[in-house]
Target: LLM class flavin-dependent oxidoreductase
Amino acid sequence: MGVVTLHTDPDEGRPDTGLRVRSPADFPDSPLARVLRQPFLLGLFLPIQNGGWSPSTLPRTTDWSFEYNLALTRQAEELGFDLVFGLAQWIGKGGYGGELRYRETTLDPFVTVAALSSVTSRILLISTIHILYGPWHPLHLAKFAASLDHISQGRFGLNVVTGYAPREPRMFGMTQVEHDERYTRSAEFVSMLERLWGASENVTVDGSYWRLDEAYVTPKPAYGRPILVNATGSPAGFAYAAAHSDLAFVTSPAGADIDAAIAALPDHVGALKARARAVGREIRTIINPMIVCRPTEKEARDYHAAILAHADADAVRNFVAHHAAGDSRAWTNHRADHRVLGGNVQIIGLPEQVVAKLVALRETGIDGAQLTFFDFAPDLAFFGAAVLPLLKQAGLRL
Model:
């Protein structure tokens, strides 16, 4: 893969002032800056958990294994996609139950991305991690993330999630921290990461939740710091994203219906971007559409109907109950029947209809889509052959 050249902050070598390190977006030759030149970002939400995003028993190839997800990542990279990442979850035996034992088996996204970093060359690799669970310390993650950023030549990122489900922290012997307080803690954690990535001398910080005493991290990240991402739909999450994130993974406040989402998203996305501009930053937003696409609208509707007809009812019911038990401010208007197919918004139709909806999402202020599919490998191949050329014709892709 060649030798990595570190693109350091111009203040490197001066006394550490406590200021955070620059975003990789500020370096014109960084992988993130290259990706951000696209009119509309394309990502793939990897199915590193059994059942993917759809608790349906309709036969398909979708598989949680590393080999399957490696093949998907290479396929996405060949198609020119910009980024991939997977979800992070902590769930007990049986998963969400049902015939599928939905999501019982899940690869860890941090380890998965680490493995992908040395077998890909262009695509951004984002690792989702619950930074508040268990024994994580900012010094650990600063070192691990800088190492992976170095290995990937600046393509590594952290999707920082705080956790909304009470049973997850209990698995670590912890109690759930109040919603807004989780973002306060996360802000301190990430600020320490940024200090460690940017400092030219040892760092000592006496924080409210973590301490650093003469701490230092090397090698430094390739372009200032790794890419920072978070998923949010609340005011506290918006405040955190505005201050720290390069990309924000947003949800539709109107549920999965695509037309309702398109109507609701301009104000939602506008509020987040305004908050970032108020602190002198620019932030890009991505959303998760589930794509059901076939050569004709009838074929797409028939495919969708077959997925719903094979719903794993117990798994759907348990999944909905799990979400209702948490305090997430996102996904609040999603109906139970939408969970069978999955995705934050759902786009169903022939290629021209899919493109029209993605264009409409772009017009709401959304900067990109993190795609999911029911049957990932063949559905992604069809998207690449039938939809991607139309996206280029529509001006969404270069």
